[in-house]
């Protein structure tokens, strides 16, 4: 085979790979080398009116946002934090463990190669570039360190006026350019958060059952939108710890759930106004799914 034939063969192999992967990449993404289209609208929150209440906005988010390490059972995301934010993600789900004067980002016992300070600095850099945006953060202390973690976070943010730690419900104009903390049980800074999960909602034996659970959770979220709390729905799941789903990793669940979720949400596009679902936190979301969630705010 000559050089020209080899080049042609390589071209067709690459073309096949692109088209064979294209369907999944729209709603599910496990490719860390992610490139945004040149026309992509990164500062999508600029299209939301200043007067719209926070509790009537639907936010795309990630579950265990920094879980990029630890093998198939632990990995929940492919994109770096910077890339998630530029793709449109506006809710971050973080679990931290304190040692000395630092808070380390964890997923269970797996260290995720980042400190909370590094996460905050990345978010601050993003918000300094895109001042129309806001980034919500939920912090969950690992291993019963509630008081210690709250104190450490307060020391970390200091008196930064670009961090929202109040429990009152703001409108969009009040949180532009800011990190917005969400509080629940073990973390006490920011807007009160309720989540629609029941115990065991993340355990998946059959994908169809997971779809039905998500529908129930999103119905609850819609009912709670417009109140005094932020509302959170996790669409993530794993079969680890179950009998029939023992081989379902977070990636395997997201690969099936994400395209279904996109189709489910798009049925509401003809509605005026479109319903609010609060925060939707996902594993391995693709650009089209993120955009579908964003577009629920545009009517």
Largest sheet: 7 strands, parallel, barrel
Number of helices: 8
Q: What is the tally of beta strands?
A: 10
For this structure, the quaternary state is: single chain
Topology, please?
Layout lengths: L2 H23 L33 E4 L18 H7 L3 E9 L2 E6 L2 E6 H14 L5 E7 L4 H12 L5 E2 L7 H4 L3 E5 L7 E5 L11 H18 L5 E5 L15 H17 L12 E4 L4 H9 L4
Parallel strand pairs: 1-2, 1-10, 2-5, 5-7, 6-7, 7-8, 8-9, 9-10
Antiparallel strand pairs: 2-3, 3-4
Give your account of this protein's structure.
The chain has helices at 3-25, 81-87, 116-129, 146-157, 172-175, 207-224, 250-266, 287-295, and strands at 59-62, 91-99, 102-107, 110-115, 135-141, 163-164, 179-183, 191-195, 230-234, 279-282. It is α/β, with parallel strands linked by helices. A 7-stranded parallel β-barrel has the order 1-2-5-7-8-9-10, surrounded by 4 helices.
Provide a short characterization of the protein structure.
This protein is an alpha/beta fold and 299 residues long. The chain contains 8 helices and 10 strands.
Features:
seven-stranded parallel beta barrel, about 35% helix, alpha/beta, about 300 residues
């Amino acid at each position: 085979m000559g050089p020209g034939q080899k080049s042609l063969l390589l071209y067709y192999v690459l073309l096949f790979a692109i088209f064979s992967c294209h369907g999944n990449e729209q709603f599910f993404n496990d490719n860390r080398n992610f490139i945004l289209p040149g026309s992509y609208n990164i500062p999508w929150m600029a299209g939301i009116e200043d007067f719209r209440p926070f509790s009537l906005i639907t936010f795309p988010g990630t579950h265990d946002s920094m879980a990029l390490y630890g093998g198939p059972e632990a990995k929940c995301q492919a994109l770096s934090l910077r890339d998630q934010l530029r793709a449109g993600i506006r809710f971050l789900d973080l679990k931290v463990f304190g040692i000395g004067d630092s808070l380390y980002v964890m997923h269970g016992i797996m260290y995720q190669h980042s400190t909370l300070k590094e996460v905050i600095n990345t978010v601050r850099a993003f918000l300094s570039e895109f001042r129309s945006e806001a980034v919500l953060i939920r912090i969950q202390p690992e291993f019963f360190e509630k008081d210690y973690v709250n104190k450490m976070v307060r020391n970390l943010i200091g008196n930064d006026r670009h961090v929202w730690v109040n429990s009152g419900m703001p409108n969009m104009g009040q949180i532009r350019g800011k990190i917005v903390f969400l509080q629940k049980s073990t973390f006490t800074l920011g807007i009160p958060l309720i989540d629609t999960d029941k115990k065991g909602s993340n355990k998946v034996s059959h994908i169809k059952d997971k779809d039905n659970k998500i529908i129930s959770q999103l119905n609850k979220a819609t009912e709670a939108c417009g109140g005094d709390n932020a509302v959170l729905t996790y669409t993530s799941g794993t079969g680890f710890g179950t009998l029939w789903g023992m081989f379902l990793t977070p990636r395997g669940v997201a690969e099936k759930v994400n395209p279904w979720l996109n189709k489910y949400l798009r049925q509401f596009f003809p509605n005026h106004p479109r319903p609010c679902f609060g925060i939707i936190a996902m594993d391995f979301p693709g650009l089209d799914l993120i955009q579908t969630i964003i577009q629920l705010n545009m009517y």
